[in-house]
Amino acid sequence: MAEKLSAVKGMNDIFAPESAHWEWLEAKVRGLMARYAYRNVRTPIVEPTGLFVRGLGEVTDIVEKEMYSFEDRLNGEQLTLRPEATAGVVRAVIEHNQLYDGPKRLYYMGPMFRHERPQRGRYRQFHQIGAEALGFAGPDVDAELIVMAADLWAELGLTDVTLEINSLGQPAERQAHRAALIAYLEQHAEQLDEDAKRRLYSNPLRILDTKNPAMQALVEAAPKLMDHLGAESLAHFNALRGLLDAQGIAYRINPRLVRGMDYYNLSVFEFVTTSLGAQGTVCAGGRYDGLIAQIGGKPAPAVGWALGVERILELLKAQHRLPALPVPDCYAIVPQAQGQDAVMRALRSLRQAGVSVQMHAGGPDGQGSMKSQFKKADASGARYALIFGESELVAGLVSVKPLRADVAAQGITEQTSLPLAEVAGWAARLR
Ligand code: ATP
Ligand code: MG
User: Fold this and answer.
1) Is the separation of the CB atoms in 55 and 263 below 8 Å?
2) Which of 120-124, 153-157, 211-215 is the least confident region?
3) Which residues form ligand 1's pocket by a CB distance below 6 Å?
4) Domains of the chain and CATH, by start
5) 62 C-alpha to center of ligand 2: Å?
6) Which of 191, 281, 331, 431 is 20 to 30 Å from the Cα of 389, by its Cα?
7) CA of 49 to the centre of ligand 1 (A)
C-alpha cells in the first residue's frame, strides 16, 4: 500500500455533523447581513505579498512570522495566502472603484492562513466571517457594526461574550503617546522580554498587547493612549459610547486594547469570552481610516470586524447551542431493482416539492433484505419510510410508514398506501 498522506498540521478536515454546524452558522450570518443590508464580497485567497506588508505593517506578528508566502514558479511574483481579508477587500474596492457611487457595506466568509503554533482555538488554516463598512466616517457605523455582532450572539443564543472597546486616536496622538511609552519602557528595560525589546523602538504600542504573563503588571501601569487623545478623537469615542449605551450594549473600556494590525485608528473593539480558555477573543475589529490611502486609493474612512468561526463554533458547543444534525424527511426502501425508473421519478418529484429523501442504493449483492433496509432507514433518522414494493409499483402506489413516535401528529400514524402521484402533495404538507 502506498504511504498514507495527512493534512497539513494545523489545517482541518470537517465532516458532518460539524460541517452541518458550519452551514447553520453561515446561514444565520447571511440572514443577519441581509437584514443589515451588508452585501457579500468574494476576493482571492492568494494576494501579492506586498499588499499585506503595506497594509498590515512590517512590524506585526502576521507579517513578521505568520505568513505563508511563496514565489510563483512561473513568473517569480511574490505571493501570500491571505492571513486576513480586510487588506484584500480594500484592494478590490480600490481596483474596481467601488466607492464611486458612495459608501459600501460588505461582508465575507472564508479561510485565512497563518503559520502559528496550532492549539485549541488557534489553527493554521482558520475561518473568518467579516463585515466592512467603507466610506463611512462614523461613529454611527461603528455602533451599527458592534450592534450587529451583538445581535448575532443573541440570535445564536450565546452568553458570556463581553465587549471591550478603546480608541487608538489619530497617528499624531499615537506619536505623543509613543514617546511617553518608550520613555516608560526604557525605565523598566530589565522587565522587557525578547519580543518587547525588539519592538521597543519599532512598534512599542504592540508591546501593550503582549500575552506574556510576566509583563502584565508592567503594561498595566504604562502610560495610557487615552490620556493623549485630542478633542476630536475623544468626541468620536464618546459619541460611540453614547450610541452603544442607548442600544443597551454593555462594554468595558480597555485602555490596553490595541489590535494586531497597524492600520487601526479611533474605535477598536473585541468581543471576548471566558468560556474558551486562552483563545478568548471571538470577534475583533475597529476603524481603519488610513488603510485605503495606504493601499493606493483615494482617502476614505472605513471600519470593520472579523469573527473567528472555529472559536464561535467551539463556544456554541460549550454552551450547548448547536443544532441537531439534519435528517432526511423520508428514506426510500426499494426492495427490488425492477421499477427503479418509476421510483427515481417519484423521488425527484418529492425533492422538487422541497422534501428531503434518502434513496436506498443497492450493493454488489442486490438491494439487501427488507430488514437491513429498514435498519438503514432507522439509522438515517428519517421520519417516514417510503416502501416501493413490486406489486404496489405495478398498481402505481407506494407505502408510507412512520418511523418515529413523534410523527403521529403529522397525519399518517400507521402504514398507508398512497398513489404515487399524490406522494409529493402529501409530503409537501409535512414541511
Ligand atoms: P490573537 O490575538 O488571538 O492572535 P488576532 O488579533 O491575531 O488574534 P485577528 O487578526 O483580529 O486576530 O482576527 C480576528 C479573529 O479571528 C480573532 O479574534 C479570532 O477569533 C480569529 N483568529 C485569529 N487567528 C486565528 C487562528 N490562528 N485560529 C483560529 N482563529 C483565529
Ligand atoms: Mg494573532
Assistant:
1) yes
2) 211-215
3) 84, 114, 116, 121-123, 126, 128, 260, 279, 281-284, 306, 308, 310-311
4) 18-169+229-318 (3.30.930.10), 330-430 (3.40.50.800)
5) 7
6) 431
7) 20
